[in-house]
Amino acid sequence: MAILPICISGEPVLHAVADPVVDFNDDLRSLCEDMRDTMHEAPGVGLAAPQIGLGLRLFVYHWEDDDGVLHEGTAVNPKLWITPLDVRDADEDEAEGCLSIPGERAPLVRASEAILEAQDEHGEPYRVEATGWFARILQHEYDHLNGVLYADRLPQVHQKRIKKVIKQNHWGEPGHSWTPGEDDLED
């Protein structure tokens, strides 16, 4: 078990399209385990490889819905399809956070349904249909693989506030990270 440092906005890997995973081996499985441990320690509901400084098309997720159903997995080389977005302002109960912009949350409209097709850490393909918050989580993590942070999708009023926080914390440039369990930052 290893808790990995999480990159903060401004690190180039967070703003670039990630490369496909080609080797399904013990190193990949160990990386996935470390990512799950880091996600839980943060605590978060998802973590993408770019957030730990690796430009790979890989994320992990773990979320329990209101009915007690646990949604967890590893998505390697995922593809994601979503329903059309509503054209409306986001409600406060749609506020998201991101481990790469620690401590901040803002409301964001996301698609209400998503279909994820991916491989697990052993290379086995799978498909998941998601709704509600689970669909939101998959969209958020998938965005990381394409160099997009949730703050990039925010309406201007919220984006401006997040950019101000990034500037005040001297983030927004390479070299900033935090380690769950060691640093006094939280999502």
From TrEMBL:
Give the positions the UniProt entry annotates as the active site: 141
Transmembrane segments in this chain: where?
A: none
Gene3D superfamilies per UniProt: Peptide deformylase (3.90.45.10)
EC no. given is 3.5.1.88
Task: Reply yes or no: does the keyword Iron apply.
Answer: yes
Q: Which UniProt keywords apply?
A: Hydrolase, Iron, Metal-binding, Protein biosynthesis
Citing just one GO molecular function, the answer is:
metal ion binding
Q: Which Pfam families match?
A: Pep_deformylase (PF01327)
Please identify the protein, giving its name as recorded: Peptide deformylase
Q: Which organism is it from?
A: Candidatus Agrococcus pullicola
What gene name is given for the protein in this entry?
def
